[in-house]
Write a structure and sequence with these properties.
CATH class of chain A: Alpha Beta
Number of strands of chain A: 14
Mean pLDDT of chain A: 96
Number of domains of chain A: 1
Strand content of chain A: 15-25%
Oligomer: homodimer
Structural class of chain A: alpha/beta
Low-confidence stretches of chain A: none
Distance between the termini of chain A: 47 Å
CATH superfamily of chain A: Ribokinase
Order of helices and strands of chain A: EEEHEHEEEEEHEHHEHHEEEHHH
Chain lengths: ~300, ~300
């Protein structure tokens, strides 16, 4: 099944306690499609870059099955750039620099060949742009998932609430879920967010795992305890890419299969953080992914002994 | 199998966003033995109280199978008292008052009938007192578990490191594990702590669940997402009581059974937080506990589909 990812394709400067990487490839749409490419090959990107983006990186995306017809390339302009420094705990980070560049007046245009896409992942962008993408579709996709952040809740809440009515799955972190709903309890937050539109809610909790909510159903996916988290950049987008990529492959939107999709997303994210940028997501083998999934099974597996 | 709990038996004043409770029953040994009493009946307490402690509360503990021969009652003195106020997130709290009272010069004395105990849970107390209890035993118990806190790491580290060499299971929270080991990664922290003595390490993460480490084995137990956390006081001790109570009942120290013990501890803690003080731990039915365990199974259960 075809999958469209909308989001940034960008450069990052990253500083972690383990080292420093300059002008490395990043961006939500990059991480989403790369992670998804291990599950499905009919991938499309809507995004914008400058003419500073290396052709070999675009070739690499193409080699992973990503159609770049919807990627606008602006001559003489520069790609979106983000620079950040992670604290020792790797959970907190300071943004050192954000240069919107081509993203400043980004107007997404869906090529005709994209307008009947089956699965849509809207990466974190202005809610108005996310809405504009949905409005260009010829028919409603089988599933629309969306990522957003506190910044849009603070500055474009009305617009965000509008787009939330149009989607199926909201993928956010715990603090964002609390801010959006005004509820501290994630159970209550999920209930409030369901009422805003999304039937499914995935709450990412970083090193503490992820929760999947659908109506009264709750699933708790662990995060793999890692000895080294080298660079957390892109982990959330990689999670989203693995999640929706697995759904696009299996075409099964039951709660049972959504649970598996959360585990596959978590597994892909656990690779992402092992190296800078997209390095670890390049050239993963099917065997490595299966071994990682088996590690998740092992991690939470127990016999309950209800005869105690 | 017999189980001895060493720790406070005390009064608490508690303020949460949901209300206020004054001079209610608390204390680590109280929560530990009550939680354990749902699994095993040969329970003993070593602690100290003043003559202000209500006889009916002691009778209730006796009715749950708790032997109080090792509970010193000091005439004319007052029991340990703690007062705290929880923030809206219920994770953070301010201590408003701590009155050591009888605990100030507590010298634990094990009655002869306690000295061959099979399972020992050392609640959070001065490491020197924890050590003194171990030294009074006639033989080494099958399992010694210990709880401690940052305060002892700051003020009595040498003494803490001594007692850590004498125990099997350390039960602490994530921040304590990081401080004790000097490692941010919990995987590395576990490795460092294993080298200090404890073969098993349980890291409690509150609403994020718990991790069990033994050598290279890791188990991740979820916490039940709750709509209402009414009062978190005693949740950690209740966890410890359910954990060691289940082990004392089953007498199986395999990693598989330790995993189950972590789940049973988490289930007991999930009851504890539903009401003030020990209220919810009174009169639980076997059926309620089994239903709660079944909810934990449901929460993390998934089919991996390794044929993707």
């Amino acid at each position: 099944m075809s999958l469209l990812a909308v989001g940034t394709v960008a450069f990052d400067d990253i500083e972690t306690p383990f080292g420093r990487a300059e002008m490395v490839v990043g961006g939500a749409a990059t991480y989403i499609t790369l992670a998804a490419s291990y599950f499905t090959k009919d991938l499309k990107i809507v995004s914008v870059i400058g003419d500073d983006f290396p052709e070999e990186e675009l070739d690499y995306l193409r080699s992973r099955g990503v159609n770049l017809e919807g990627l606008q390339v602006r001559k003489g302009e520069r790609s979106f750039f983000w620079s950040g420094r992670y604290h020792n705990n790797l959970n907190d980070r300071d943004t050192l620099d954000t240069q919107l560049n081509v993203l400043g007046d980004f107007d997404p245009v869906l090529p005709e060949s994209y307008r009947n896409v089956d699965y849509l992942m809207l990466g974190n962008l202005t809610p108005a742009i996310q809405k504009k993408v949905i409005q260009q579709l010829n028919r409603r996709p089988k599933l629309i998932a969306l990522d957003t952040m506190n910044f849009w809740m603070n500055t474009a809440m009305e617009s965000l609430l509008e787009v939330l009515k149009m989607i199926d799955v909201l993928v956010i972190n715990d603090e964002e879920a609390r801010q959006l709903s005004g509820e501290h309890s994630l159970v209550k937050a999920a209930d409030a967010i369901h009422h805003m539109g999304p039937k499914y809610l995935v709450i990412k909790k970083g090193e503490h795992g992820a929760l999947l909510f659908e109506g009264g159903n709750i699933f708790f996916a662990p995060a793999l305890p890692l000895a080294e988290v080298f660079d957390p950049t892109g982990a959330g987008d990689t999670f989203a890419g693995g999640f929706i990529g697995y759904l696009a492959k299996t075409e099964d939107l039951s709660f049972e299969n959504m649970k598996r999709a959360v585990i596959y997303g978590s597994a892909m994210a656990s690779f992402c953080v092992e190296k800078f940028s997209i390095e670890r997501l390049k050239g993963l083998s099917n065997k490595e992914i299966k071994e990682r999934i088996a590690a998740f099974v092992e991690l939470v597996n127990f016999d309950a002994d209800l005869e105690f």
